[in-house]
Specification:
Keywords: Membrane, Transmembrane, Transmembrane helix. InterPro entries: DUF604. Helix content is 25%, strand content 20%. The protein has 488 residues and is α/β, with parallel strands linked by helices. It folds into 2 domains: 185 residues, Spore Coat Polysaccharide Biosynthesis Protein SpsA, Chain A, CATH 3.90.550; 169 residues, Cation-dependent Mannose-6-phosphate Receptor, Chain A (Distorted Sandwich). The strands form 5 sheets. An 8-stranded mixed sheet has the order 11-12-13-17-18-19-21-20, with helices on one face. The relative contact order is 0.09. The N terminus is likely disordered.
Length: 488
């Protein structure tokens, strides 16, 4: 670190200390000047201390996001990534990583278990490849588990050992984790990187947490460790994991060693383990009130856009991200008084229009379009750690879905218009009061720039005069101070 280098400089320019001035005898005038100087110094010190006691927050801050003690806010070049992969999965997962990896900005390494084949090309725009160290001397006793968990756990140690400069955060993940780097940086900037922080999220499935730990950041979602904590963890890591040969995964070992250091998990709901299968639209359309930071298990769920491949879906998703990353998936609830519709907007992704009035707490719940990670008859296997609503048994009484078609900034770069087209997945018909009469929904908004010094507040929504009977137009805005979101 830069500060360390400063303190390592010699105190004096020469090997021997030299006397630069000869001593002189004090006169009466010199005594008087000394007394004036000492008196002024103590008066200034007394005044400064009193001001600090009265206005402490004016002079200090612990947030890199708000400036203060740090000359620059946290940026992507302050983050170093450690991505766990292997020589077999990396060719398949590489395109997903390249979608969020920023050449010449993002730092870190993809850790493989062996050197790639000699004929493998490594474009300059790819993240660097690192080969993990030998772990054959480490014990692994979990039956039917994979001892590669030890190698993946040691990615923490090996990433810290790369000795990157000016690091504030280390972020670790699997190779099938997609990051939204702008949101990741702004989320981490809420915290003082000089302190010890272990930031991540649990699984969406209660049983997964019960088996592994409610206090563990699941590695697939990705997790962040502040620089000083990562350095401390690296110093004790190998002896520590030797005490946990019976654990299944890498993230369990990391959490155990952090627990030995006395550090607990700081939960950030923007990270997503995504321990679900099938159609994940219900989860994504009811995103928590927090910027999305990561998505995991993209290969294990249906393509998130209908009639598109996974690759096409990710590409479509990032078109919205590039326009307004912080607003991505943010849920806004609108009410249509005339038809008594409840409209749930997941910006940049999808809109659900319910044909009836739903109280706000019900409208915010995730529709159970998805299934748990594991099929099991155990009662807890299908219990989620978030609020959900079961799908209506009648297909024609379920919400009508509209998926993002286009998004663009209007002249000036502040106003954004997004257009969503209806997706028809059944033969249901509706009368003139049914949302199925709609073909398109247009949403106007301003680019979101959240202030993390305050609690994030859900935004409000207005219905605008529409240009036709098959088009619905909405405007998303900041709520007034005492404004409530409810069906009038």
């Amino acid at each position: 670190m830069l500060i360390d280098n400063i303190f390592k400089q010699p105190m004096y320019p020469n090997s021997k200390m030299q006397i630069l001035h000869k001593p002189y005898k004090l006169t009466k005038s010199s005594h008087l000047l000394c007394l004036v100087f000492i008196s002024t110094f103590f008066s200034f010190t007394f005044l400064t201390l009193n001001l600090l006691l009265i206005f402490p927050h004016t002079f200090t801050t612990t947030s890199s996001f708000t400036g203060g003690l740090f000359p620059l806010p946290t940026a992507i070049n302050h983050v170093v990534f450690g991505i766990a992969s292997d020589k077999n999965s990396w060719p398949r997962r590489r395109p997903q990583v390249l979608r969020w990896w920023k050449h010449k900005q993002t730092r870190g390494c993809v850790f493989l278990d062996a050197v790639p084949p000699a004929n493998t090309t490594q474009p300059e725009t790819d993240p660097p490849i690192c080969i993990s160290g030998d772990t054959s001397s480490f014990r692994y006793t979990f039956k039917k588990g994979k001892r590669s968990a030890i190698r993946v756990a040691r990615v923490v140690l090996e990433t810290v050992s790369l000795n990157h400069s000016h690091v504030r955060w280390f972020v670790f993940s699997d190779d099938d984790t997609i990051f939204f780097t702008e949101n990741l940086v702004k989320t981490l900037a809420k915290y003082d990187h000089r302190m010890w922080y272990y930031i991540g999220v649990n699984s969406e499935i209660y049983e997964q947490n019960r088996i592994f730990s409610f206090d563990m950041a699941f590695g697939g979602a990705g997790f962040a460790i502040s620089f000083p904590l990562a350095k401390a963890l690296a110093r004790v890591f190998d002896p520590c994991i030797q005490r946990y040969p019976h654990l299944y995964g890498s993230d369990s070992r990391i959490q155990s060693c952090l627990a030995e250091l006395g550090v607990g998990l700081t939960r950030e709901p923007g990270f997503h383990q995504f321990d679900v299968r099938g159609d994940a639209v219900g989860l994504l359309a009811a995103h928590p009130l927090s910027p999305i930071v990561s998505l995991h298990h993209i290969d294990h769920i249906d393509p998130i856009f209908p009639n598109r491949t996974r690759e096409e879906s990710i590409e479509r998703l990032f078109k919205s991200v590039e326009v307004d990353s912080e607003r991505m998936f943010q849920q806004t609830i609108c009410y249509d008084r005339w038809f008594s519709w409840t409209i749930s907007v997941s910006w940049g992704y999808a809109i659900q229009v319910f044909p009836q009035h739903l109280a706000l707490p019900e409208a915010l719940k995730a529709q159970e379009t998805f299934q748990p990670w594991k099929k099991s008859e155990a009662v807890l296997a299908s219990v989620y750690t978030l609020n959900t609503r079961q799908l209506h048994p009648d297909l024609c009484k379920r919400p009508t879905y509209f998926f993002i078609e286009s998004v663009k900034k209007k002249p000036g770069g502040v106003l954004v218009e997004s257009v969503y087209r209806k997706y028809v997945d059944n033969n249901c018909t509706g009368d003139s009061s049914s949302p199925r009469q709609l073909e398109e929904i247009r949403v106007q908004s301003t680019k979101l720039d959240l202030d993390y010094r305050q609690v994030v507040r859900r935004q409000c929504c207005d219905l605008l005069p529409s240009s036709g009977t098959t088009v619905l137009e909405l405007s998303i805005r900041n709520c007034e101070e005492d404004e409530l979101i409810y069906m009038h």
